[in-house]
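Suppose you are handed a protein chain with no further information: no name, no annotation, nothing but its sequence. What can you learn? This example shows the usual starting point.
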Amino acid sequence: MSFSPRDIENNADMLDRLRLIRTDGIGPIKYFRHIEKQGNAAAAISYLESAFEHFGNGPNPANLAIVKTELSLATELGLTYLFHGKTGYPEQLASIPDAPPVLTCIGNLDLLYRRSIAVVGARNCSAGGIKFTRTICKDLAESGLVIVSGLARGIDAAAHEASVSKGTIACVAGGIDVIYPQENTLLYKDIAERGLLISEMAPGTKPQARHFPRRNRIISGLCTGLLVIEATFKSGSLITARFAADQGRDVFAVPGSPLDPRTKGTNQLIKDGAVLTQCAGDITQELDAMPLLRQQVTFANQKPKVRVDQKMPVQHAKPSVEPQAARPVSDILDLLSPDPTHIDELVRLSGRSAEELLVEFTELEIMGDILRHAGGKYSRL
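A reasonable first move is to predict its three-dimensional structure. Written in structure tokens, the prediction is:
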């Protein structure tokens, strides 16, 4: 079930959960780690407050007033919330290790519980790419699949437009009330009325570059499979495809001319094992096949999976050792050079966990600041 802002205000546990995930410096990995270590959100907040009071560093839990301001805005917008671990949270998304602890939603929540396929691709796509996207998404939607995409210009917008009458989900990078890009305003409103909009960010949050890779793992996490239509080598679509492969999803790709840089990424995906896709039947037949017969896609230079730590004993005591200060992102970049460095060495030098570095490296890769190599090595561009 979903929860209204009023439901959350009257439930101490959900208020604490919202406070914890809205805390600066706390993402999904740290959220789950703190809850597992401390037992619940209230104990995690108490621990963090004590650490901040004693040492003056580390995450300082979000003030209750900030969360109540968010809930007031959510009431005005007509938002509903889904909490990880509560009834109604989509099982497919809950299965990924860095699932969003909280989702805000506008629209038809029933779409979350139907079988779905993600469709992503180039923003600066070709006319042929737009035409193909509209055709295949219309056919997929008519077959009963919900189309999930990111409401970006280009392939994303075409996928939503072709499927909104049958069922489409738009995952937005910023706050659910912030329309980006503005050119998709009418499409946004149409999806709000006939489809579903979701976001893990607080309403009112303006999308930043680092939010888009986080959004992409939700797109792939919601679905049984992911279709890529036109993508360059360094595109966000290929990062989404890697997320999908890490999450155990089927990956599909549309081939293109080797002379068009917009299809070099999709052609590489096919070489790496993605299902060559020319029509909707190529996808529906694969999804209908027995899971044991599905091909597991692996990528050259594939990054390790991000995993939440194994179970840790419940501890409620105040911290007795000052936590090591983690280096900011700029310092992480300073540790890299044009020569590839193994992630284990970067963990040792930075004081950060491998999970945290992998999340940051994904963001830096999509921004074109670093290059990922085989064997868990990274270099600075």
